[in-house]
């Protein structure tokens, strides 16, 4: 299996530290608002890696942190007259619901920053003791120039970084490049050897990664926007505190863009996962993301999502047969092609091509094709529950029937009630017209003695 290592900027053969075991850390959310499509891309990407490593037989420990102490959380708490804990707990629950709705597996470990303060303080004390950090009026800063490899991950020379560095009002840094490990904060802070304060963002991940996975880990992943300064700073403080290599493989997913601009809350050009799920199901969103290579930027558009929706329906509507639990798919040609694609730096678009080939074979009743499709699609996180229609699709169908009959219906339930009455009155022409129009919209009407239900074609 080969993966692109951002640190060396090369595709490398993946070899875990311990045979058959993988320690994987992904930077999690700062919980103060709804998760958006950019978050969906990040966490679906690493969910697929997690699933695939387990599928390959690795014993994976997946840790994804929760940042529940941060300036954005504190500002929201003040604005809403709530405690930071109330804000972070509420938005963590919303984030978890969004991840579950996207069919992402829960990480093995999901630590909260505020529950790992002891480990952060311990690392900072070690850094001060060894001369890599210093205290200044309740703040603690890391001495960047004491770490010669600083800038290697982001490929930014130190002199280039210096030209853009500055000291903010109130900061007592020795050097503009130095970054905060601990911030003085007497209002929302916690007790520490340097007074009441709270941790800097970067130290949180170093502490949680070390506590739950050890000093050196196999994989550290996240969005490309975290390469600098977050991951660069993590490397510096972790390697200086631990005296050893921090991460063997750095993996980063590309941005989601709208009109070629990165989707982000700061730019205000984001769509929340909840908003998206009102129009498209989780399988469609996952398909849209996996059609593109994870390292490349992906341009969001309704056209792209509609295309993904058609693709995923084609796959999930494959002719279903009973799953052959005894089938050893590792001996099949399709399995070999799927593995070849995924082993090539998670080439999910090629893996999807294998699934479409199996879809065609399943529709032709080829033996065990559906079993292979079901098992391999599950590795990519697709749910094979019966496809459902979005609220928008249902409303469009209702609108089409309304136009055809010249009667305004407000909902599918109202439309079906009208059709039921037409059948009771033996008005077969109207009942059939409704059924045929819905059929044109991809909706099957099924009548039985127990009533009428609708299904997806």
Question: Could you list some keywords that capture this structure?
Answer:
457 residues; Four Helix Bundle (Hemerythrin (Met), subunit A); 3 domains; four-stranded parallel beta sheet; four-stranded antiparallel beta sheet; 16 helices; 15 strands
What does the model show?
The protein has about 450 residues and is of the alpha/beta class. The protein has three domains: about 1-255, HUPs (Rossmann fold); about 280-380, Four Helix Bundle (Hemerythrin (Met), subunit A), CATH 1.20.120.640; about 390-455, no CATH class. The protein contains 16 helices and 15 strands. The protein has helices at about 35-55, 70-80, 85-100, 115-130, 160-165, 200-215, 225-240, 275-280, 280-290, 300-315, 335-345, 350-365, 370-380, 390-405, 410-425, 430-440; strands spanning about 1-5, 10-15, 20-25, 60-65, 135, 140, 180-185, 195-200, 215-225, 245-255, 255-260, 260, 300, 445-450, 450-455. The strands form five sheets. Strands 4-3-9-10 form a four-stranded parallel sheet, with helices on both faces. A four-stranded antiparallel sheet has the order 5-6-7-8. A three-stranded mixed sheet has the order 12-11-13, with helices on one face. Helix 1 crosses helix 9 (about 280-290) and helix 15 (about 410-425) runs antiparallel to helix 16.
